[in-house]
Queue: 4 jobs
Job 1
Amino acid sequence: MRRLHALETLEDDFRGRPLVSFCGHCGSPPPPAQLAAERPSRVCGHCGLGLVLSAAPAVAPAIGEPFLVVDSTLSVCAVSAQAEELLQIDETRAVNRHIADFLVPADANAPGADNLLVLLVDAAAGSGEPRTTVVRPREEFGVRFHARIGSCGPPHAALLVLTS
Amino acid sequence: MAATALLGFGRQAVRCEQRLATRASNSHDPGVRTLKTSEAAALLNVSANTLRAWERRFGYPKPQRSAGRHRLYTHGEVAALRDALQEGLSISSAVSRAREALSTDTHTLVGALAGYELDRADGAMECALALRSVERSVEEVLLPSLDELGRRYGTDSAPWSFAARWADGWLRRAQRLAPPPSRPLAILVGDATRNELDPDALRVRAFELFCGRAGARVMALPVASVSGLGELVAALSPDALVIAGSHVCDDAVALWAYRVRAASGQLPTALFRRSHAADAAGARVLPDRPFGAQRQLLALVDDRRAHIAAEAPPLRAAATPVRREASS
């Protein structure tokens, strides 16, 4: 319910499915004035530290949910403020590093199709429905997060939302 | 064509000299197209506050300061960021991509020097100067390129010798084209490097260049030259002494510094790129980067002048009782 309040449907993807917009850093939807501007900026009008991205409502993060954006080479492209706090990483140092430097599958026995990296590559290619898996911070044991993985963009990338 | 290129008088070299000659002031470079905060913000379609927030968080775009301490952004940096933002997923990745785009000058310079192509090397520096100040072109393109060549081939190799001589020539040319001294500040540099092939020598040349561009009168002298130092010190009357380089042993440096001090009296002394800096008695150790060293040295001299001015008895206070005595 909170997500429905936070996110506003903006446009459709190439399959005609609705998309919602959110900031790649603070996760907030762009202010209406920003969307109505003659030359809308891609930079978040709230925090100014992230770019406005779009994703399917089922994948998009609710306000306060930590998330990361990963490209098709599995390099980290964006880390939300909440994810920075949760994983104790700094976005400026995390970009261009491999996602496996920060998160690894928590379920070693997961079948191939559910493998974290496979899901991320599929999502970054813009294909497939949102999927979920379980991950843990690298070199930390006993901590697990449910991860919701889907496509976002532009350009095409994988969105990994961490849920408790 | 090849002969002119090898002599360093290629078309690129001439263009580079013209560009250097237009760079007069130290705080902001009129040869580089710069943007005010509002103009840069408009180009990026963000607010001025956002631009300042990016400067704090990402250190990019990094503005210079005008004479009135206002931010001046380099057009090249802002344009590179604008292009990167259009295809980026985050500000961080866009900044990283913009920085990469700007570092192509370094790759070009390394390639040109490794291929013994003087004209291309001059061209790479010309491109660097189109986007950056002289100081940043030297610190972000010239010196890192030479470091890369040193790592790749070793500092006893032919590519290194060729590149070091070219860079030394480039820095000396820039020094000749620097504006005349504009502030009452003279710096004596004791050059303790081996020769122009010493890896520290280029940084010492860059330091001299930056001090000269900041309006100081700079004189560099090998620490081996001790005879006639008194006359030189009398002519220059230095405000600071800098020992630069680590090739010459401490004894020879100490003798030279002693002779300078004997002629000039107490002088603030600083060490630059001197590896035995730990046992520097009373001398300030300057940062390794030439621009940082220049700024710290100027601050050191200014502090000393302010200290001396504060300690001197105020003239009016001394004059008042005399006047009273006369009236009584």
Job 2
Amino acid sequence: MRLLMLGINHRTAPVALREALALTVDDQQALLAELRRRYPLAEAVVLSTCNRVELYIARPAHEAPKPAELRELLAQRAGVALDTLGSDTLVQREQDEAARHLFRVGCGLDSMVLGEPQVLGQIKRAYETAVAGQAVGPVLHKLFQQAIATAKRVRTATGIDAGRVSVGSVAVDFARQVFADFADKTVLGLGAGEMAKTTLRHLLRQSPARLYLASRTLKTAQVLADDLQLTGAQGGARDWGDLDALLIEADVVIASTGSREPVLTADRFRPLLKRRRHRPLLVVDIALPRDIDPAIGDLPDVYLYNIDDLTAVVAANVEQRREQIDACEAQLADAVALCMEQLEHRDVGRLIRQLRHRLHEIGDAEQQRTRRKLATIAPGTAPDPAPGTAETEAIEALLDEHTRRVINKILHIPLSQLHDPAHGVATSFYATALQRLFDLQEADAPTPPAPPDTEETPAADSSPVNMKS
Amino acid sequence: MTDTLTTFLLAGLTLLTLAAWALALHRLRQPGEHAIASTAQQTLVIITGLAAAGLFLHRWLFVEGAWQPLTAHVDGLLLIATLFAGTVAFLQSRPRLLGLSVFGLPLLALILAWALCAATWTYRPFEIDTLHPVWRGLHLAGVYLGTLGSAVAAIAGGMYLYVQHRLKHKQAPAQFGRLASLEALENLIIRTATLGFALLTLGLVAGLVILIDEPDAWEHASLARYLPKIVLATLAWLSFAVVMNVRYAASFRGRRAAWLAIAGLVLLLAVYGIVTSSAFAPRAAAGGVSSFEFRVSSFPSGERLAQHRAQGHQPENSKRETRNQKLLKPEVSTCAS
């Protein structure tokens, strides 16, 4: 069986394309059913999160589905032009690389937020969905169960999921370094960009007393307020004309407008300091070009951070965690090698059984022919169809033994080559060669699901999977 | 000089505190979970506090055998060290005040080192006026506990400045270890400064009452001796008066409140310095306005005090000596009867 991973992720595809390709649980089930119908010998799992859509396929060597067919299928289902899923957008991994990719995703090494834990749950759910849809066979069972188990073990051993950071979480970290409690704090969002929304979501988890949104277009602010599900008591959209009053009341400001000029200058803000009674103010400017005059950061009791400051912290965090990442990669490399070896041995074992069976079929057929010829050449020496004499049985046993010995002699050298670990890299080559030379069937159809070795229950809803991964 | 046990214990406790500080610094510089280091640090601080308390009781009950606990400046410092260690142990267990021990433990080590110094090189017993036992008790309690409050305010102030510096230089908590927030630190400064202010007020008023009662207090020579202490203590008291009101005097909040809290403690330490300095030592009292007289015959530790006198620690003022003699007579007769 050949492993194939095909998909897009946050590194290769913009958010719009990821949104177009994103699949709800129902969509995943429909896609799996489609794949089973088209490619009955293939196994499939569909992983869809807000940052990636990936197909994991195990298929017989040189059999469908081919990557081009899957690409076409994805484009067709998402309703996007085929060109959109070009080689720079669509990630394709095969065999060990595909397995390694899944193991890395499970550990959060391929996530936007390094080490984030949600993706592991999403992988479990994707696997369980595929199991429920009977799209998983022995290869993907093995692969996903080992990926999940390894991710748990590696996360615990290396602590990669501790201390993870994103731009939003860094902003919250800064806020928590200034404020002890958010229950009496006011957050002000300026603009309604995607980054602002993400950061405001992070801040909302701190349960601030009020969250006001001000945009130069009130409607935009209102849309974001609705998106964040702000009720009247919790704040909501405010007119841009109230900006000074809002700045006096605010404790945290998240700025992300599309303005070409700073929307808040030091000259405008300085007189407000006294009216704020010198309360500390945290300003997070994640707009490009910047919304906040950098001189504001020099004012007393104001703590200003722009997108560069935040991303520098994120990058430094990744750098600081280099040792953890290296430890993860080392453990994953061993786990992937072990998994692939087990899968290969399983394939080889099955191949050997098939090969023996095939040769014995040939041997039996030839034995029958020999019997018939013997009967023609020397009547009375060939065994009768009916149970015969002791002499006849002896001749039959001799023929059987001869056939078995010939088959065993023929198989001895190729099987030794397949079993010899020194030929590890070439095993798949020999296996493929034998398969082709003797016209052996490689795969079984996906089997009914074995009880998954996971802890979580499958997601019951059909909402899109919505976490960072 | 005190007994050898006190000296060795104080030296050991200072080292223990420095070890706890090293652990606290390690935790600060290496963000993440340090369960063992955290437990070890907390254990060291608790051991230090308990040992300081034990030493304080040992000196009170067995070494000095005095009828009152504070017979020398080292006792006062041991009392402060005990209370301060307890406070640090409490504060470092508070999730909202992470990292405060990094700033508190050096001060605890300083207090213990000072106590070591006061127990060996600058050892002087207090001259205690038994005419004002209540006022003296209030004075000592107010001054020592007020100092404890102001010490906590000052370390919170130091930490506030450090955290603010980190924030202004864009150093993220995730990179350099989480510390208490500015808001939590400001709240702590205000609360402890308020406590310090109240207790210092009590101590200063009690000291003033004792001073007024002193017959020669307003003479030029006496006034010159007490004036620096009074002025510095008043300035410290004023600084805490401002700090406790920063919510109303908003222009003093934040960084300025932190500096004022530190300045208040420095002023108090200066008062202690004056009290224990050689020029004032023969008249030393527990950190505040001194009382004056020995009542040798009435103290269970009278022999020890007499030994000190024999070693040259006689009060300088002959007028006081005369008054002392007058005071001694009825006590002796009381004891005799």
Job 3
Amino acid sequence: MPTFTIDGKEIEIDPALGNLIRHGTKHGIHIPHYCFHPGLSAPGNCRMCMVEVESDTPAGRRKALTTACTTRPAPGMAVDTQSKLVKDTQKAVMEFLLINHPLDCPVCDQAGECDLQDFSYKYGSGDSRFQEAKVVQPKKDIGEHILLYADRCIRCTRCIRFCDEVSGTSELGYFYRGVYNEIDVFPGVRLDNRLSGNTVDICPVGALLDKAFLFKQRVWFLDGVESVCPGCSAGCNVRADVNRDNNRVYRLKPRENAEVNQFWMCDDGRHGWRYVHADNRLTAPMLRSGEGWAAAAWEEALGQVRQGFEGVRAGGGAVAGVLSGHLTNEENYLFARLMKEVVGSEKVGLRTRVSEEGDVKFKGGFTIRADKSPNSRGARDMAAAVGLTLTEMPDLLRQIEGGTVQGLYLLGGDPAEGLTEAERSAFGRLKFLVVQDILTSGLAPVAHVLLPGAAFVEKEGTFTNCAGRVQRLCRAFPPPGEAKADWEIVRDVAGALGGRLDFASAREVMEEVAQKAPGYAGVTYEALGSAGMTVSS
Amino acid sequence: MPEHRIILKDVDVPNIQDIEVYIANGGYRAAEKALKTMTPDEVIKEVQDSGLAGRGGAWFPTGTKWSFMPKEPKVPSYLCVNADESEPGTFKDRQLIEKNPHQLVEGTIIAAYAIRARAAYIYVRGEMAEGMRGLDRAIAQAYAKGYVGRNLFGKGYDLDLYTHPGAGAYICGEETGLMQSLEGKRAEPRVKPPFPAQRGIFGCPTTVNNVQTLSYVPHIVNNGAAWFKGIGNPKYPGTFIFCISGHVRNPGLFEMELGAATMRQLIYDYAGGIRDGRELKAVIPGGASTLPMKPDQIDIVMSPDQFLLPGRGPFKGMFGTGGIIVMDETACAVDMLLNLMQFFAHESCGQCTPCREGAPWVRDVVKRIEHGQGRPGDIDLLLNVADNVAGLLSPRYSTICLFGPAFSYPTQGTILAFREEFEEHIRQGRCPIRKDKGIR
Amino acid sequence: MSVQFSSEARKEFDELLAHYPYKEPALLPVLHLAQREFGHLSLEVLKYVADLLELPPARVAGVATFYPMYHFKPVGKYLLHVCATLSCALLGAEGVVDYLQEKLGVKAGETTPDGRFTILKVECVASCGTAPVLMLNETLIHRITKEKLDDILADPEAYVTKKKS
């Protein structure tokens, strides 16, 4: 096994890792860097990662100061990250980076997660000797979501390379020369590709900023909660940054997952979560009262549900259910069991939302999926696990129009939900409609009972993405008011209908799913970890 | 004073720019000899044996450089000719291009053949538009005669030859900067490895050669390696064109063997000594990146092996490009460094941190000192900042390309040689030198 | 698109493209061609060149702004490039600039109101032996003196067309 050493520590050479920085990271040795990013090319321009490398050359064994980002390890190579030469170079580079940088920390969004701050503290000299006039560059509004405070830019060029290599849209250019060079867009061609938000993530300093997050929150007040973006079936791994004092999400950032989204997420998902804190969140069970609605306690609402279904049965009608591609595996599984075992109906459909635009693929391979439901695949898998053959929605609507089906329990959870014309017409005929959703708009208008569910950051559970990967959602804070996690509601409805779906947690539900769903064997929350696992179907 | 003209020999022959005149003077015989009677490897060996080394400042053995190119190219190989002469003090490539373009064209053809290149690009700095047009005319004449184009000399070798204009960037003289510019990009030098012979222009193996270097090639092929090897200094055979400018009576070009004369002889015997009866104060020996020398150092023999890096032995980089700039007592060392730093700060590509930030910083501090606003710590600050970019007296080196040392070495060198003058500026709060820089 | 190459320029463009295995390397010579054709590289011209070469406009503009020989605002008919680097500086370049500024009433970098002259300070043009030098458009003029400047300003066309040097 070929090896090399970093600071005397023997390390196995892994060609898949590439350069010295990545080898170091894997073994807990941090080599500071700015311009290198594992998802982009390595230009070697910041000079922060310079290390001393001793290796065999045609001229004999030589030691040289070189960039770790452009150097791949060779057998017998000895890398020194701690020598005086390395430390002096780090101090020098930090000093150079700061001489034209504004002292903006007190007003800069990046403070607290800024590589300039962090490396200055760890590797810098703590002092500036620069007394000349700084080169000042303007603040630029360069895109729908993006600001460029160019005076803070350290010219790592990650953003330019992202637009060239990952989004393939090349809106960002490098203009002028020398210390007067600056990053900008061509007038009239703004940074508006659907992956634009990633440039803010990869900017090591506070030059590229997210307009929606500007001045909103100091990052040290935020906790990161691991979850999965509910925007489409790609299942990008995300981190919801949450302030525990007011239980609010302040931003969504992508998490690295080489199997799913690499390092990226799209702007639709990145900015599409604000419904979580919308004013029209359902915060209590609602019962139809004349032309309007009245809030009710859970017990009363559940009682209404039981009466509603009994009324339908008494009149000779059937009760149907609709799974949701927007709810978790655990929730869809329990619902499928509820319909089959407790309600005793096999008339179960599935609603998903597939957009007409088709999959949108970018140069580097990242794809925004046409299916805007995060868990279509999982919902189907759960129906199959319970032995239910799904009824196609058009068929179900026909049965409602025809009067066979008179009662319906509909799962929602899609913030962009709306009823189609056919659905509005059909649902309007129902004798009894229970809708479980998170917003009062959308599915509400024709329902008799509204049950308030939880958004993706408000519950535990899993989604299965379009490639069959099961991934965990983690709960950041409870849903608002009287709202509950959707799997809890389903369990309570089961109880109200005289059945028993006895689970104390979503984790327990998944334990049963793992036994019952064919491809899900071995799936536990521990096994899923932060990166999920693939299931077979 | 032994001037020995090989490549400058015919520059004053009337109409030598016309191919018929050039041929009548013995032109294109070498190209024919090489392409018709020698294999590419034989040409490489001839040039290797001659001892020809790159005249652009690097002094890398030319034949050896050619031998790095693939013998059986799977993708096209290319030759780039570096006609981007922009080093302050240097003006010899201009002469070669404008006065004897066919000599360069012939050398290019032979070099391209030796490295099995599919095409050659002569990268001419944008300001030499007239010279480029002259080369275009010469190339067209060469095509018409069948010296460039298809099936040259009936030997099945195809070669296309083009000129390509720059647009005002000194960094295009750096070989990877040149290649970036030729690819239609900002001339930001590349990290090496990979080296040009592995991945050059268009992702293909490439050799970059200097105008002066290639101008020797026809003569080496015509007269043989042994002839060239026997000329002058055995370590650096052949001749070299020195350019002398500044405060001398007779500025100009002088082609001679390396080691044939001292700096003193060049200044006083060839260039007529200092103008207006003044005293010599400083000499820059080989372009803006070399260390300025003082009058007590000018008995140095003009050969690369004589030039040493302080404390580290011979460093041919200190010999430079042959651009000698002479300064008399009306020149101010601080002002001189300021002028060069304005040049370097303007020409920095801006890609890497130490150069982008360090060059203007040095310029600004030197400017303050020259304008009487220097502070006591400024001199040591300059030495340290320059050392952080690339150390003259230390093993520090932090930039992507040689542009870092290009400005940090003369900064450190000027202060080391003229520290008192810098201190005097600071002490007096003004420049104490009586300059004479007015228009005449 | 209101900006278009004339048919001669288009012909030259096509010839340039043939020098390279793909379009991007033609950028610098095409920018020179566009500048000759349209006087300066406006945003519209840059976008036109980008479309012709199938390159992103930000990249084309980024390349163009790297090189000082490209102008993005209108410049005078006669560009007075004064070399200001060391050898020329030692032999009076600053004085040349001052003299021109005085005679023309504009500063370096500016164009005279009648659109005739622009003064530009440039870096070493590789003719240090005949310092101080000035380039009038593409013509190199050696050993500049006050008299010579007066003559150049009086009859710049003669220098541009090589009747004088």
Job 4
Amino acid sequence: MEDEVQIKLFFWIGTFVMVFLAVGIILISVIYKARVDRLNRKKSESLLKASLDSEKRERQRIASDLHDGLSGDLSAVKNFIALLNNKEEDYSKKEILQEVSTVLTHALSNVQNISYNLMPPLLESYGLVPTLKSYFDRIKKSNNITIKQHYFSDVIEIPSSEAYEIYRIVQELTTNMIKHGNSQQISISITLDQNTLLFEITDDGAAFDFNEKLQSSLGMGLKNISSRIKHIDAKLLQQSVSIGNKFQIILNSDNYVKSSNNR
Amino acid sequence: MELFINITLYSGIIPLIILLFKRIALNFKEPIVPFIWVTAIASVYEIVGTGFMQINTSYWFQIYSFLEIIGLYYFFSKLFKGRYKTVINIFFIFLLAVFCCSLFLWKDNGSLQAHSINKSALTFSVLIACCFWFRDLFKNIEVEENLWNLSTFYFISAVILYYSSTLLLFSLGNIVYSDIYLYDYWWINVFATLILRMFLIIGTWKMKSK
């Protein structure tokens, strides 16, 4: 009888211990795996940040080298050509020098464009809105499209690193809209709702599903947008519209957004 | 209690229904598929054979033990894709040997002893195989894959929980309890079976469709 009680006790304790061990193993694996995944994610996020930062630095360096170095040299050559042209009396030589000058002007303009695309000079000194305005002015000149712009303020003081990423995202989206979607009209608006900055970009071109294209596309454009969005901790939403596309970028701006309206 | 038992009984068919909906019920490339069939067959037999037709459970216990060995052997051998092949095969031979021995202990008016040794041997083998799976998981911990989205995780959790909680019930059952008193403790098996089947349902739900 006593043995039976002991065996029953052993049965209950044993069963409890076995269940406890099984649940323990499962929980430990889940918790440990989640922790490792979290660490991996943090590692890849910091790698992404480092690579985007170094890309930005490198763009800045190349842009300033082009602007201060090559662009300056080309301007100097152009001046020398102008001097030569003034002194030259032979008409055929003057014509050639005129040709050289035209080619140099074209090259200078190309270098300035490349330099601007690499790193818009306005971004650091004047901020996001003037940079976007200048960017859209250039787009309007080279493409026959209408661009509507609405900014809640001309001064949006967000860190230059975030302004840079936003600028790149807008640049990539609008380039895609023009290049692949054949858009005729693009609208951009920036609004501030409490502490949230909302960037809305719409067009009337060919519609596409951002997430679907992101999975299937071999190009880097959409992947870069996605990386930059992650980098600045923003959200990219695609709203369904009857014609074209509508993208929203939501950026939490708790502590740093000041607009001229608020001053 | 009857409702609880009925839920447990019927829940065994759900994983197969999910597989049928996902059109992978006959895709035997998926390691778990034979075991899901065994579970569904067991459910149907227990509802019809044992419940309605009142057929002696002794026959079924013995047949089920054999089907269970085959289903789990298939699951683990496919799951490890050739790894631990020797160990898994040794376990399989060991389980078949134990099953053959259990045939000598089987009686049509009491299969508890045969059932006990089959279950004990199977529990031992399954727990070792699960340890291999967890060892592999920790070895490849760098691979980013959410465990909650991994159907295999649910299947492994299902078998590890079921066999751990019923180990002593089946191994000591024959020593301590007579067939009459055993039913006082049978709810442990019912509860463990319910957990097993719930995890199988979630696991099959998480499986990718064809």
